[in-house]
Amino acid sequence: MDLFSDRDPLITTLYQFLNNPEENEKGANTPVRSYARDRRAMASTAVDVKELPNAYVFIADMPGLKSSDVKVQLENDNVLNITGERKLEDEDKLEGKYLRLERGAGKFMRKFTLPANAKTDGIAAKCQDGVLTVTVPKVRPPEHKTVNISIS
User: Where's the SHSP domain (predicted)?
Assistant: First the structure.
């Protein structure tokens, strides 16, 4: 039974397209396909975001990845973009065969719009023991200043 049989033909076509990837290899780079790929990449990367008094900290598990496999960028002055790719072993170098393959492979991506008080020129990132930590310092709030005005 097709759940979309009574719907708009465009919706039905889109549904079939997204659920039959092997039939759509020729259209692998269409906008709809790349959107679906980006959504999966974003959903597969869990990131904790912590606010400290003087910074925002983004923490992501990156098991088995080197810092060269991960890219941290700032887009449009306020969007933190974390991207990378987990690759499977090269089959030519593989000894034996996998009986079960559960570790994920493929591209990953997360984007975060930074708040107005983020100091983007001080962003630092480190990848240690399979954990990526990106620290975004906060702009110091202006000091409270009181000026006495003389009354004449």
Answer: 38-152
| Closest-CA residue to 58 (of 78, 75, 72) | 72
Domain boundaries, the chain: 1-43, 47-137
Backbone angles phi, psi at 18, to 5 degrees: -75, -25
* pLDDT digits 0-9 by tens, 75-93: 999 999 999 888 777 666 6
Residues 11, 38: Cα–Cα separation, whole Å: 20
How many CB atoms lie under 10 A from the CB of residue 26? 7
Q: What is the DSSP pairing of strand 124-128 with strand 106-113?
A: unpaired
C-alpha 105/C-alpha 125 separation (Å) is 23
Q: Give the helix ranges, DSSP H, for 5-70.
A: 9-19, 31-43
Give the predicted TM-score (pTM) of the model.
0.64
CB atoms < 10 A from the CB of 100, how many? Answer: 5
* Least confident span in 33-37, 68-72, 103-107: 33-37
Task: Report the CATH fold assignment for 47-137.
Answer: Immunoglobulin-like (2.60.40)
